[in-house]
Specification:
about 200 residues, alpha/beta, six-stranded mixed beta sheet, about 35% helix
Length: about 200
């Protein structure tokens, strides 16, 4: 579908989490685009980058109130990077600084996720009272092995969720904080709660 071209609304009800690994040439553009939407907070996780991304992130965070940097000492993979954010958000929620109903947005720092679709994701989630919404990518640019692996993982996720999912490995997703922190999946840090709505097209 074509992304909504209407004026973008602020995201004061949402916390953004961006994972970065060796994206010195692209990460700042992603952070700038997200920050323009004025989220309640923005967390950037540097997953042990070796290309100077870490220092770029630190300088950017210092210039943007409400932004926070988390650094992993070595590259541990996206799952560990996400878990570092979830643990920080758990502390914030338990301290009363974040509501359990806060939306948490996950975005990759390489610029592959089109933020023009964000309002559509939020609208779908709020209209249907979802705990999580996962975007679907066009995987035509990937090799057959990547597409096959994604298909297999998505099939497993669909069985667990009780409905058909389309791209469970996509990092572009919205999850309610209480759902995110309630018995998270060991691999992704995300617990899937799915509810089928009459007349909805599964996503």
């Amino acid at each position: 579908d074509t992304p909504d071209r209407s004026p973008l609304r602020p995201l004061g009800h949402l916390v953004a989490a961006v994972t970065v690994f060796n994206e010195a040439g692209r990460a700042l553009a992603v952070l700038d685009a997200l920050y323009e939407r004025r989220p309640a907070a923005l967390y950037v996780v540097d997953d042990g980058s070796t290309d100077g991304s870490a220092s770029l992130i630190d300088r950017w965070v210092a210039e943007h109130p409400g932004a926070h940097a988390i650094h992993l000492p070595e590259n541990r993979g996206k799952s560990d990077a996400l878990r570092a954010v979830w643990e920080t958000l758990r502390i914030e929620m338990e301290a009363g600084r974040l509501s359990p109903d806060t939306w948490v947005l996950g975005v990759d720092g390489d610029g592959q996720h089109d933020l023009r679709y964000l309002d559509a994701l939020i609208a779908h989630a709020e209209t249907h009272a979802c705990d999580a919404v996962i975007a679907r990518r066009d995987l035509s640019y990937h090799g057959w092995y990547k597409r096959l692996g994604n298909l297999a993982m998505t099939a497993v996720g669909s069985v667990c969720a009780g409905q058909r999912l389309r791209d469970i490995e996509c990092g572009y997703r919205l999850v309610r904080l209480h759902a995110l922190l309630d018995r998270p999946c060991p691999r992704t840090g995300v617990r899937v709660r799915a509810q089928r709505h009459r007349g909805d097209r599964p996503s």
